[in-house]
Amino acid sequence: MSYNSTGENEFNSPQNLTVPSASSPVENSVKEPCTTPLSNDTLYSNTNSPSDSCVKPLCDAASEKKSQCNEGVKYVSSEGVKCGWGAFTPACLQFFNTPKGVLLFLCVASFLQGMIVNGFINTVITSIERRFDLHSYQSGLIASSYDIAACGCLTFVSYFGGNGHKPRWLGWGVLIMGVGSLVFALPHFTTSQYEVHLPKENGMCSSNQSMPCAESVSILSNYRFVFMLGQFLHGIGATPLYTLGVTYLDENVKSNYSPVYIAIFYTAAILGPAAGYLVGGMFLNIYTHIGKQMDLTPDNTLWVGAWWIGFLGAGAAALLTAIPILGYPRRLPGSQRYIIMRVSEAHQLKDGIPLRNPTFIFLCLAGATEATLIAGMSTFGPKFLESQYSLSASEAATLFGYLVVPAGGGGTFLGGFIVNKFKLRCSRIIKLCLLCTVTSLLAVFIFFIHCPNMPMAGVTQMYDRRILLESSLNLTAACNTECDCLREIYSPVCGSDDIMYYSACYAGCKKKKSILDSGKTVYYECSCVLENDPSGFAQAIPGKCTSSCERTVLLLFMFFVIFFTFLCSIPALTATLRCVSDRQRSFALGIQWIVVRTLGAIPGPIAFGSMIDLSCLVWQDQCGEQGSCYVYQNSAMSRYTLVAGIVYKVMPSYYFTFTSPSLPAPPNPNSPSFKNKSQLQENQFVSKIMARF
Predict the structure, then answer these.
(1) 3-state helix/strand/coil string of 535-576
(2) What would the 3-class secondary structure string for 70-123 be?
(3) 3-class secondary structure, 618
(4) Parallel, antiparallel, or unpaired for β 540-542 and 509-514?
(5) Average pLDDT, stretch 309-323?
(6) Among the four residues 52, 90, 166, 288, which has the most C-beta atoms within 10 Å?
(7) pLDDT at 51
(8) What is the percentage of the chain residues whose pLDDT exceeds 70?
(9) How far is CA 269 from CA 122, 238, 316, 454, in A?
(10) How far apart are CA 163 and CA 171, in angstroms?
(11) Residue 267 neighbours by CB under 8 Å, 6+ apart
(12) How far apart are CA 150 and CA 593, in angstroms?
């Protein structure tokens, strides 16, 4: 048996695979210096090792007729590896029956998964809370339903799917994910229209202000179970994608090309959330009931955008993507060649027990700690920027998206490129991961730096500009005593004295006007602003005061943290695939995903959220009950973020340090033992092919 080493996947196996006839013994056919033709009309000697990339042509195709070894040679049919659905296998579909074709459709599927789960969900969660009267813990449970469902079926899918028809598992998974998106959008069409009742002088300094407390829980909150069902379907459908999809790519390409394919696959998954943030943000500027005229604007806290449009479009796209994936064969043409070409780097077990693989265990633990940091930062990164630089929520999300896309996507792709370019073995891959982790650990210390809080009357300072103690909160002063302000209404304004106020009422503003050219509202006759404004304008505008804190240094080091964190993701995944046997790869990835989600992705946002809540200065007051946090102390937030970053970077550094795979020395292709082993592998492979056909 011979191999074409001139290009990657430039063959049509098993049509080009020659095997001895049944009349001649396999042993004799291998020992003879026989030459066999390949598709490029060049004859190669099968005495060369299949792992040798420097095979030289022995003669041209014209000498084929003179060969004494061609008697009894037959070609194996390739009908079993055609792309199609059952008996329907049109010739036009065979153009996509390549690793690049599979990569294309899997990238589309991973892009849609990232856009739906990590993009749309995070973008619309606030609108869903407002529309369906949900509390924060209820929306948090909706977000966690995805990981809970994935953990529940990972073992089943990775084990049975790994031993079964992977493309069918993948196709049905993408189909279920599409159905989940349609289910998630269903509550919009089964509820009554969203009604808003606005008071005329909301937030102004006037008497007799009141806001009734809801005595009973709205029935709309029961729709959270529909959202949870949609998320469960998302989790079930996406489970095969990152276990079976990765192994299907890995086993159908050369081992040195596998990191590049996997890196492209994961890069698409990272670009998905970025598209979800951008597209989802655009849809939120459209009112939830399209065509209905409202006095509300997207800046109003009661505004609910068209959160459901993205789920309908992405769900339909997922259903269409599942169709071609279902048509792929169990193995692509030519993939059998890489079974004996791949040099196994699996952990050498001394006692024969496969579960005792310290390399795999340490890689799982390192991935879990890294996932904790990634999940926490992706959830609360925009909030950190919003507090540090006094930005709006949309501005902070956009800035964080611009930061993550080049850092995360570039790091993911470059990691796979480095492994492929330098052909790193498992031990050197782990050293690369350790270097990336230590580098990002050093960059984490940038969180020693923080931006000071913008001065806020009654929160960070007194109304007479005296510094206020952190533990005290006094929003009432002589200038707003008669305004009868409501603590429940938080609508910050920036006074002409460059001081931020809890609301226009607490600033003592009695009148407002709208500027037609810009469409903005200006409050004036603000008694509290007048005391500190030397110009005498005593005006205030809605929103936070602009921060003058320098952004470049902090954003640059945050870029390095994200970049080096994602730089080791594909190398670590490649090391996982190489430290286990071929038959256990899908199952190993399933176990690893369970560990990563259970110890990292699920508790990560909870741990980060708990630490960030410790830095809260002003809590929401909902009829005597504590709600979400309005104002954070920037110094405390940076300090807690620094502690979390150090902890979750030191731990993977420790795991990578003690991850030393017990691997055999690389074989010498010129040694007789290596040639005999290669011939034995060829004999076994030929026997399997003959037995199958």
Answers:
(1) CCCCCEEECCCCCCCCCHHHHHHHHHHHHHHHHCHHHHHHHH
(2) CCCCEECCCHHHCCCECCECCHHHHHHCCHHHHHHHHHHHHHHHHHHHHHHHHH
(3) strand
(4) unpaired
(5) 95
(6) 166
(7) 35
(8) 72
(9) 15, 11, 18, 37
(10) 16
(11) 409, 412, 413
(12) 9
Q: What is the mean pLDDT of the chain?
A: 76
Q: Is 256 left (phi over 0), alpha (psi -120 to 50) or beta?
A: alpha
Residues comprising the chain, all counted: 693
Q: How far apart are CA 507 and CA 505, in angstroms?
A: 5
Count other Cβ atoms within 10 Å, centred on residue 547: 17
What stretches of 300-362 adopt beta strand conformation (E)? none
pTM of the model: 0.69
> Would you say 542 and 517 are in contact if contact means Cβ atoms under 8 Å apart?
no
Is the per-residue pLDDT at 500 higher than 60? yes
Map residue 468 onto helix, strand or coil. coil
CA dist., res. 257 & res. 278, Å (int): 32
Task: Please give the helix or strand (H or E) that residue 361 lies within, else none.
Answer: helix 358-388
Q: How far is CA 365 from the centre of its chain?
A: 18
Burial classification of residue 477, based on how many CB atoms lie within 10 Å of its CB (0-12 exposed, 13-18 middle, 19 or more buried): middle
Other Cβ atoms less than 10 A from the Cβ of 437: the count is 26
> CA 418, CA 233: separation in Å to the nearest integer?
36
Task: Give me the pLDDT at residue 126, please.
Answer: 72
**pLDDT higher than threshold 90 for residue 218:** no
Q: Which residue matches tokens 């620094």?
A: 642
Backbone angles phi, psi at 317, to 5 degrees: -65, -40
Distance of alpha carbon 480 from alpha carbon 529, whole angstroms: 11
Rg (CA), the chain: 31
Tokens of 181: 């998106």
- The helix/strand/coil state of 620 is strand
- Distance from the Cα of residue 683 to its chain's centroid: 43
Give residue 364's identity as a one-letter amino acid code.
Answer: C
List the domains of the chain with CATH numbers. 358-453+551-662 (1.20.1250.20), 455-546 (no CATH)
Residue type (1 letter), 235: G
In tens, the pLDDT along 559-589 reads: 999 999 999 999 998 898 888 887 788 788 8
Q: How many helices (H) and strands (E) does the chain have?
A: 21, 12
Helix (H, G, I), strand (E, B) or coil at 501: strand
Beta-carbon contacts of 51 under 8 Å, excluding residues fewer than 6 positions away, are 340, 341, 343, 667, 669, 678
Tell me the one-letter amino acid at 414: L
| CB contact burial 46-75 (16+ within 10 A = b; e otherwise) | bbbbbbbeebeeeeeeeeeeeeebeeebee
